[in-house]
## 1
Amino acid sequence: MYFNSIDFAIFLPIVFSIYWFFKSQYKIQNLIIVIASYVFYGWWDWRFLLLIIFSSLVDYLVGLFLIKEENRVKRKLLLWISIIVNLGLLIFFKYYNFFLESFISAFAFFGNEINPTSLNIILPVGISFYTFQTLSYTIDIYKSKIEPTKDFIVFSAFVSFFPQLVAGPIERATNLLPQFYKRRIFNYNKAVDGLRQILWGLFKKIVIADNCAEYADWIFSNSTSASGSTLVFGVIFFTFQIYGDFSGYSDIAIGTSRLFGFNLMRNFAFPYFSRDIAEFWRRWHISLSTWFRDYMYIPMGGGKGGVVSRVRNTFIIFIVSGFWHGANWTFIAWGLLNAIYFLPLLLLNKNRRNMEVVALNKLFPTFNEVLKILFTFGLTVLAWVFFRAENITQAIEIIFTIFSKSLFSVPHFFNSGNVFTLISLIIIFLIIEWLGRNSEFAIANLGLKWNKVFRWLFYYSIIFVIFYFSGEKQEFIYFQF
Amino acid sequence: MKIFFYKIVIFFIPIAIIFSIIEYKLRIIPNNYSYKSSYLDRNAEKIEVLILGNSHSFYGLNPSYIEYSCFNAANVSQTINIDYFILKKYLTKFKSLKLVIIPISYSSLFSFIEEGKGQWRIKNYCIYYNYPSYDVKNHFEILNGKMNYHINRITNYHFQNKGDINCSKLGFGLDYKFKHKLNFEVTGKEAAIRHTKENINNTLIRSKQLLRRIFDDCSLRGIKVVLFTPPAHRDYRKWIDEEQFKLMDYECKSLVKESSNVYYYSYFESDKFEDIDFFDADHLNHRGARKLSVILNKLVIKKINNE
């Protein structure tokens, strides 16, 4: 079930009403969440449910055994069972064909032809997200950071919580699990805040991402005949598509959770206003970046140790992060490129310079800040070429074409009036994001002090824009991961 | 909590009212589906030859050239499951029906309207033909397509009296004229790629089941069925997948062998159709449609008269 579907528009109020009908009975509310989450997930394909139930059961049992076990070797063994089962499922469903094809290519390169059977595997939606979430649970128990839950319903609710099940934020057990044990009291302001965040998420997805997708898809699929200037616009449109798509999804997820009395972690913090790549990675897909930081980077030694280990750790993290996104060399190249961007900052100890939001308590940034933002934006745009391209060859061809004479030609689609409407919408979107960059999401505080009539008119106008300027409906990009 | 519910209801009332008005305004705009549905409601008893299928018969077969009482019930992207639904819906009313014509195009056996880009058209069958669907979206005009498109439709109809009917009284598509022809090379490649399907086995099984049901229902009532593969321009043919085409051809020939009331003719590579007969690489224009209709008319006469 997609957040931007009519199915969800019917599903949400029904679940919300039933859920709050049992407002003083959190155990029943947890059960409602599990049932609703399974309906939500099974809407794609009921067979996916078997996988998530199996994964939940394994980690639930591993958690219970871990707390009873004091023998270090046996504890480690239990942890490895969880890791192997979870990553095994992920590797099988997501990477089997990729490894197979890579082996075939490698053998062919050395003159040997092999014909193993490739499988027609359906990738279960969101498998990368809930796998990492359940892994964090067992690792945290192993490290004695949390106590395991004995309540299977609570654990199932934690794994399958529908707002964040298929595309995050990837929650930690330390944050989300305890919330299922608390009695939830309906909070009017929190619920309204959640609705505002859902509205803004829908705007980002339906207006910005889906409209940008139409141009980006066309340009990338015709990249061989497109000019440099057309490709620049194509990549920039993709840059806004992926941001609108993924951060829009996160906003809807976080907003929906608020309606049910839950607080999820922030996933995006206006990343395109970053002044360097390190800041960008603190603001982009925060739940994944911090997951890798806490469960891989720091255990490997992180930024400590000699230059060699710091360089090695950085490359490993970014490459694994790239590979997490998909079974394609393009994602690995994307991760590698980001590692190259990040390394100089790390080695010069400049990676933690820009911790505060840009131009804090000011309306406009300084000229120096503008240059830094544009430079960082340019680097991310370049990296997105690899992320979006079908293969490495296409990505390199696009970059070569961009840096050719045709960069100074008139972009192919400039004779279409619609592109100017889209550019205007992106500019308005950026202005609103800039004005709201001190808040959790762009319109969190916008209009709160206005007269009710104007405030409602503001919300109505966003709804109007969503319907009037909606793009061709596209799947959420991150669902494929 | 009560205040929250109360405010939500108040907030959404204006939106619901505006949506209802737009939905109502959209539904009263005459369109091919509402026209064809009401035509069949009124005239099903008189129809002797019924044309079903997708854009290839909608734009490719003109009932005016058929020497029987003929109606073209085809529509763009209409797949075999919809053909079966329409036939079944009016079967008891078709008192005079002697023959049904169904196009089997390159992709007909391997695609259904629910799966492709044309899935937004299902609402036309749900709203105007009462086609059953559990998907709420399929029961509302407003939930299919962009709002600016809806607004344009409403303003065109209410201020310029422009409806959405682009077919003749007998259901033949009027838009595809030679003077508006499209580039064959571009449309040929695009359409052939779009029509080449992966994972064809599941859809093939379902398509064959549906065709067999059509044949059986028609056979019980003494109605003959003519399957035909429409002509395609060489710029379309050169991009198709040979395997898919051969499978389609083979399946049609096999199906015909199973039923004595079914006939199959392929004009896919027919040299009777020249560049001047095409609107784009896989659709005939007016002139091509006349040619194909005349050819089929001769067949219809023969089959009805058991020659």
## 2
Amino acid sequence: MRIEAMNLSKWYGQVIGVNNLNFNLGPGVTGFLGPNGAGKTTLIRLMTGQLKPSKGTASIGGEPVWNNFRMIGNVGYCPEMDAFWSYHTGYEFVYSLMRMHDLSHVDACSRTEKAIAVVGMEEAMNKRIGGYSKGMRQRIKLAQAIAHDPPVLLLDEPLNGMDPVARRNTIALVKEMGNQGKTVIVSSHVLHEVEEMTDTILLINHGRLLAEGNIYEIRRLIDEHPLQVSIRCDQVKLLTARLMEFEDVLSIDLDRERNQVTVETNNPEVFHARLPDLALNAGVRIESLWSPDENLEAVFEYLVR
Amino acid sequence: MRFLIQFFLKNGIHSRRTLWMGLICLIPLAVAVLLFLFRPILSKEGIELPELFPQINFWLYLHFLLPLVSVFIGSAVIGDEVEDRTLPYLLTRPLERRWIVLSKLVAGWMTAGVLMFSSLLLTYVVMMLGGGVENVSASFGQLLQSGGVLLIGLAVYIPLFTLLGGVVRRPVLAGLILTFGWENSVAFFPGNVKLVTVAHYLHILSPPLQKVDQGGARNLFNMVIQTTELSTLTAVLILVGLGAIFIWMSSSLLLIKEYRLQQEA
């Protein structure tokens, strides 16, 4: 099931929440990435029909979501906000929300138990949510989002406050949902979290879509942005001397202790194409090569600058 | 809808607001107990306790508890979900938004009705016992009439204050001003202006007050508030109509209004 935004805008008086967004997302995991206040939550609330677009449309499966309660049944939503009917136990919370999907008592029980097991909350499910830790509350929110087995999942900062084990399990769960063919949207301002779940991202800032697609495609879009490449080799001094001859190399940082050189280039493709010949001709044995800034953090920082 | 009503009833029972409402509903009972304790003094003045029940019902229930409970319960119908930030869980279920509000209205009405009728019943028993055990059953019709008026009043006022909660920033304050500033004053004005109050139609349905004093100022007052060309049936129809309009309008709130729960991130 596809999620689509067409010229989607939302403003609150003079304040722009989301500005003319266009995207069409299919099955798999997609990350909504942006700093706090970027408009991610507004966008997710628009996509779940909680907010009415000021302009454009937000649709799921080709149908607008605003005031479309039947379509909303296909969506699992995990809100960012730490809000509950706090006297509920974890079980009652998920069960009650399942009953609102018009499920019978028996079905709601079985789905609740299954979802609670998936998020690893069986032991605490009969305790009041008011007594839960932040991580447990996150997991029970996730349980209510997945319990009715929706084809579309919108998870707003789902890893907030989770301990490392729960975080790892949740990341695995999100990936699995994506692999099952569900359309999963995960928002986060923590870049490495998103990076662990997907390499398909939408970069958002000030309500605008800065970039969309695979991280490497996005990297190509910003090819004027200098890329850092680190190389570890047996003759680091010789390699440094040769690299200094190239025009696209902007700066070089030599680390003799680690036999490592870090190069900043404004033409990564040419640099990578030329490097094997250079090493071969100079008789340099390259042990490893990596890009310290070829991750979402670097792309994000560059794009929002 | 049945599950939703049960769900909201359970939520309502656990809310601090309901606890406070329950305590406030004990005020008339406390007054009744005090009157019961001082009944020898009242008897010397020629006032029998059972005769005071219509007064207690009129002033403490119809003009104090009914608007107060309605304001607090009505403004909480959507307000609680917004304040507790639990509204997104409801809006992202395959539930017609109108049914969400309707279910909460029914749950609120039932909660308020149980609180007020229980209080009224206990107050009635204490007041009637002041005149002897035989009075308890003799004036039972008066109790049912008073209780019925309160339930009708709740059915009109609660959706009115739910609606008010959707259009003003401080619904409790606005509700209190509307009830104690408008309803509780204009309903006593002579002339036709009282026709634009809900309280006026509730007066028509309420048990008469003239038992305490058949003549003089009290009787005149009774004539001012209750004398009208409208029949009881007309008053009921007007209240039903008003209730239906307020219910329809308040249940449309979630269809047309969006709620911001916090600064959007």
